[in-house]
Every structure is written in C-alpha cells, then in structure tokens.
Amino acid sequence: MATSDTVQVLYNTEARAAKPFVPADPARVTFYTCGPTVYDDAHVGNFRSFLVADVLRRWLESPLCTLRTESGDAHRGPRSVEHVMNITDVGHMTEDDDADGGGEDKMEAAAKRLLEAKKSGKTHESEGVDASDPRAIAAFYAKRFIDDATTLGLKVAIESWQRADVMPHASTHVETMIEQIKQLESRGFAYVRGDKGERAVYFDVSKLDDYGRLSGNTLDNLRGGAGGRVTEETQAQKNHPADFLLWKEDERHLMKWPSPWGTGYPGWHIECTAMSLEILDPKNERGEIDLHSGGEDNIFPHHECELAQARGVTGNARFARAWVHTRFLRVEGEKMSKSKGNFYTPRQLMADGHQPAAVRLELIKTHYRANADFSKQGLTDSARVIDRWRRFVEKGRASGTTGERNAEVADAFAAAMHNDLQVATAIGVINSWINSCDAPTRADAALLAGELDPVLGLLERDVIEAKQEGDVVWLPGVDPDPAIEQLVADRKTAKKSKDFARADAIRDEIQAKGLTIKDVAGGKVEIGRA
Q1: Closest residue by Cα to residue 60 from 2, 16, 18, 7
Q2: Per residue in 361-396, pLDDT tens?
Q3: What's the gap between Cα 438 and its chain centre?
Q4: What is residue 17's three-state secondary structure?
Q5: How far apart are CA 271 and CA 273, in angstroms?
Q6: pLDDT digits over 433-473, tens only?
Q7: What's the distance, Cα to Cα, between the start and end of the chain in Å?
Q8: Which of 34, 110, 111, 292 has the most crowded CB, counting CB atoms within 10 A?
C-alpha cells in the first residue's frame, strides 16, 4: 500500500539502478522520446516503446504522482510535462548501428522500394506519392504515423495537430545541427577528414574519458571498429575507430544542405541532440533535460552518441537526468519478421477489426523492462478487460448512488505506478477492485474513468463499431459479403435440419477464407477477421 512519502522511482539506464526520479523543476518536466524514421509504417514493436513513453508522461501529469525535489521534499501532481518526439526523415542510414552511418539513407532506400513496386505493377497505398522524392515519402508516412499514434492515444501526437514543434521533423532543424557541429569543432570535439567534395566531420570520442558510460562500453572495447561493415578507408581517416559521423559531404545525396564542410547531410545522432536541446532548453539555461526515452536498441550507438554531443555543446556533464529504455517485443513467441507472417502494424490490426484500446493495452501491460510477447489471443483478452471496465463505469454512472471515493484503490494503483511503472500490477488493482464491487457507484465510475484510466489511456479510445445486416453482425475490418451471408444462411438451415456435419463443413469453409464465425445471442452470427 502506498504511503504519503512514496515518490516516483524509475530505472535509469545510465545509473544501472532504479532510483527516485528528480527533475530540475517538479512542476514542469522536460521529456524527449526518440520517434520513428518515416520510411514505412511503424510496427507494434516501435509502438510499444512510444506507448510506454506516453504512459510515463500521463502518469507524471496525474494528481496521484509524487516526485522528489532536489531539496528532498515531495511534490504531488498534477504538473505539466513538456514532451517532444521527433520524426526522423533524413540521415538515418541502413547500417546506423555501426555509428558511422553506413549503407544508404533509409528515406532513399524507401524511395527505391516504392519505385520498384510501381514498376512491377504492384498496388500500394502510396499511389499518387512521388516515389522518387524522399521528402514526399516522408510526408506520406509521417501523416500515417501521426494518424495511428492519435488513434492509439499518444498525447504528443494529439498535441502535434495544434503544435508542430512537439513532433519536429529532422529535415527542418538542419540549421541547428550545423550550428552545434560548428560548436563541437571550435571546442575540439569534432574534426574534418577527407578532400574537398568528400569531406566528413567526426566526433572525437577520446575527448571524453568516460565515453560509453550509458551503454557500458569502453574505448578499448570499441577499438575494433564498427562491426566490420565500415570500410577500411573510412576507419583509417578517423582518430579512433569509435569516432562517429556528424556531417557527410555528398553532392549526389537526394536530401542535402549547404554547410561549412560542403553540401551534404547530417549524421543521425546529431539530429536528436539538436532537436531536444533547441525545443526543450532553447537558451541553454540548464544544458540538460529531465527525461529521455527510447527502445533498448537505441542505447548504443544512438543515445551514447547523443549524450557525447550534448556534453560537448552545453558543457554539462549530464544530458538527461534519467534515461528510460523499453525492451524488445516478440510476436507469438518469435522475433517479428515479415517472412514469418508475424509482422504487425497497428494500422493493419485496427483495419482487421481490433479495437485501438485493445491494441494499446496489449502493448503496455507487460513491464517495460521485460521482453513482451504480443499475440492475437492477448488482443482478445485485452479487449475483454476493456469491455468489462466500460460496463463497470456505465453501471456506476447509471446507479444514481454517489458513494465515496475509494482512496485505498487509488493508493494501491499509485504505489504500483510509483514503483518503476508496474502497469500490470496497477491493472490487477483495478480488476481486483471490480471483482469485489457488487454495485458500482458514481464515485467508483469517477475514480476509474476520471483518475485511473487517464494514466493508461484506454477507455477514452474511440470504439470501432460493428455493422449488422439481418442475422449477420460484421465485426470491424470485415466488409459485408453476400457470398458469406449465403453460407451463414445455409449453415442455419443445416443446423435446423440437424445436419450438423453439413453445418460444420460450412463453418470450416468460412474459416478457410480467413474469417471467424461465432454464434451470439438472438440467433445471430458474428463474422470477424481471423
């Protein structure tokens, strides 16, 4: 049970321990989340990390959340959270795990992919988009991402419809990146290599004795280079094998800008350093932000490099007071893969009739520091939980009984969330309460809908309605089909005649078409997507 002195604890990747989260100003938290690279639709693994950040942001804003101040006092919410999530639309290379930006720009790779699809005659939702223009492709996928994120309840995406600066595009902040690289160069953190026309600007990691402190790497461990995929010529021109790219001169690159080091493009890592500091600390008053989040695959090299750059730019030994990283997501017990047929995007799942709230719950219910397993059965279970909560709230509102706020439930929920965002425990608190509550009151409905659920963001999601025609209920994602309606009618006739073998054969025929069939009350049949 929570006590009055309970404060928020988060696992800080840099500290390698769970510690009280202490922002510079407990009434205003600055929070940066690494967002998507918009060369394709974001998948459920991407969205798990984004939704964890959203739940953390919602919890910090909650009146139930208490933070420790620098003086050791407790600060009870509500508070404002200034949350920024970037859109990467330039500079993220296909081999950026090398820290050198190897391979080709992901946006240019997307342009080639769509051009090849169009040449082959394949239909694609990007029909009408100029497949030769990476900027057009970025705009197309960025819009789809924001639409999906809005449907799933990411508050930063919802805010972006009114405030574009909370979801900045990297390509619109190149001037700031250039200014930061100039600062790094003047302070001895960056150097230029290569002849005119092929110049590259690198960050000199040897200038920081503790480079690698976020990821646990050391300069000696990194001396072997970047995974063997960077050319020997590139490695030879660097001071240290782990030095990473800040700017690349390349007139042939489709997305390019003028700079003191020639026309070219920025490295991936400088983008987030530039956008986070420019928007959240524009006057370099603090030289740091409170929170930084992303997937565990961002820790190295991306976030390690961000930290190094920020230290060189601001002079502050610390960039983020806390680093929060979400672990990987598996699908149906396996690594997600298009070839395995288990590669899901929220857009696809919702088109197939799964409710946005169920998708959201399935992605947030496992603790963020544990590997999660996403499954269709889990989606079904999550949908049942949400439906039960909705009915509880509806009954409470219709009861006419005021009752008293259940402080014990609120405290238990808060204790779970204060303890490093134990969402599963918080959900368990709600379910146990509902199990023990025979007749919910208006106070109960207000507590769940007005205090607890806004942290999880589930009941506020729009409900995709089913369509009903005659005896057939068409679940979301399935369009009415006369041929299926006839099969349903034939099955009904077979069952009346007690020809159960025929009825079973018709059911199997419907299921073979990738559909589900379920008998429901009133003699009706639900048809959904398998």
Answers
A1: 7
A2: 999 999 999 999 999 899 999 999 999 999 999 999
A3: 37
A4: strand
A5: 6
A6: 999 998 999 999 999 999 999 999 999 887 766 666 678 88
A7: 42
A8: 292
Rounded to whole angstroms, what are the CA distances from 26 to 19, 65, 66, 279, 410? 16, 11, 9, 19, 21
Nearest to 156 by CA among 279, 296, 277: 279
- E strand or H helix at 462: none
Q: What whole-number distance in Å separates Cα of residue 451 and Cα of residue 387?
A: 18
| Residue length of the chain | 530
**CB of 125 within 8 A of CB of 22?**
no
Instruction: Please give the single-letter amino acid code of residue 471.
Output: D
DSSP, res 169: B
* Banded pLDDT at 226 (limits 50, 70, 90): very low
Residue with tokens 């590997």, as numbered in its chain: 371
Contact 518, 467 (CB under 8 A): no
Residue with tokens 């930084």: 292
Report the distance separating Cα 152 and Cα 148, nearest Å: 6
Contact of 35 with 85, CB cutoff 8 Å: yes
Cα Rg for the chain, rounded, in angstroms?
A: 26
